[in-house]
Amino acid sequence: MKGLRSIGVRRFVLAFLALLGVIGIGTVGFHAFGEKWIPSFYRAVVSVSLTGLDSKPSSEGAQVFTIIILLFGVAIFLYVAGAIAEAIARGLITGAWQERRRRLTIERTRNHFIICGYGRVGRRAGREFRESNEPYIVVDFHEDALGAARRNGDIVVEGSGTEDAILSAAGIERARGLVASADSDADNLYITLSARAARPDILIVARASDDDAAKKLRLAGADRIVQPYSSAGREMAKLVLKPQVAAYLDVAATTGSDEMRFEEIVVTQGCLHAGATIGELRVREVTGAMIIAVRKADGSFDTAPSSSLCLDVGDIIIGVGKAAELRTLEELFTPVAGDREKR
């Protein structure tokens, strides 16, 4: 598409230069037939643009010259019309419009996720984001991956996530998190390095094929590492050793399941219930959900929170329950309207 667009632009540039050249030659020619410079320029413009003449040239030589200029003008405008028709036929104009619309969509996207590498792992991540109604942008350059993303209606940035310019085009400055899911460990390492340099505070989850790659990705700045092969082995062992536990976790972890879900809720500064204890809020009675863990602001985990645990600003609550119960739990910790407007 870029090559076709460059060809179309080149044709328009050539036509424009030819137009200027004919106008220049016409101006000099009419001046040579005895007219002043401004009238000569005027006659050349109206002749080339096919708008007609306001007076007949005085001499036969000037009339012949006018006919030649008119023919050149016709040829140029036919050339331009052909270039426009070809651009429409090849989708250059519509493609440019779609490209502009895509850029505007990306510029308006906020608090989204970036998936660098849309293979099997990246597509699964995209499916989870879609089912959770979370915005995301796909970054890839392989034709099959780009085709799959477009069939899903995804926003796509064509290129490699190892390049700073591509990450910037995907809106990394406004993103919430990044998934480095390329098939190559080296690519995921460069993606992680580039993303961490651009956004020191962004959440990065990276794919690794083995422990050695995982170690390097942690050093590069990945927050979480996923090893598909070892994870698959652990899951298979769980299914054999503890099938009911595995079944429960599968139901709870499935996006869109209304039976049981996990949710993360951040206690923010504008929350009315910041500083209250779990017992004071009567979380179970009021919402129906359960708080099964709390990550304190200092990074420590309380995996069995008691009713006396105080929920402070910066804490992250891990809740479990049905979708409606978790929504009620989230409402307990929603910032008040005034605080949202300030932020």
Instruction: Specify the structural class.
Output: alpha/beta
How many distinct helices? 15
The largest beta-sheet arranges its strands as: 3-2-1-4-5-6
The description of the largest β-sheet is: 6 strands, parallel
Order of helices and strands: HHHHEHEHEHEHEHEHHEHHEEEHH
Strand content: 5-15%
Rg is 32 Å
Helix content class: 55-70%
Q: Mind telling me the CATH superfamily name of the largest domain? A: NAD(P)-binding Rossmann-like Domain
| Count of discrete domains | 3
CA distance, first residue to last residue: 42 Å
CATH class of the largest domain: Alpha Beta
CATH topology of the largest domain: Rossmann fold
The best one-word shape is: elongated
Mean pLDDT: 83
Describe the protein.
Helices cover 56% and strands 13% of the residues. The chain has 343 residues and is of the alpha/beta class. The protein folds into three domains: 2-92, Helix Hairpins (Orthogonal Bundle); 110-226, NAD(P)-binding Rossmann-like Domain (Rossmann fold, 3-Layer(aba) Sandwich); 258-342, Regulator of K+ conductance, C-terminal domain (Alpha-Beta Plaits), CATH 3.30.70. The strands form two sheets. Strands 3-2-1-4-5-6 form a six-stranded parallel beta sheet, with helices on both faces. Strands 7-10-8-9 form a four-stranded antiparallel beta sheet. Strand 8 and strand 9 form a beta hairpin. Helix 10 (228-241) crosses helix 11 (243-253). The chain is elongated and about 105 Å long. Residues 338-343 have low confidence and may be disordered.
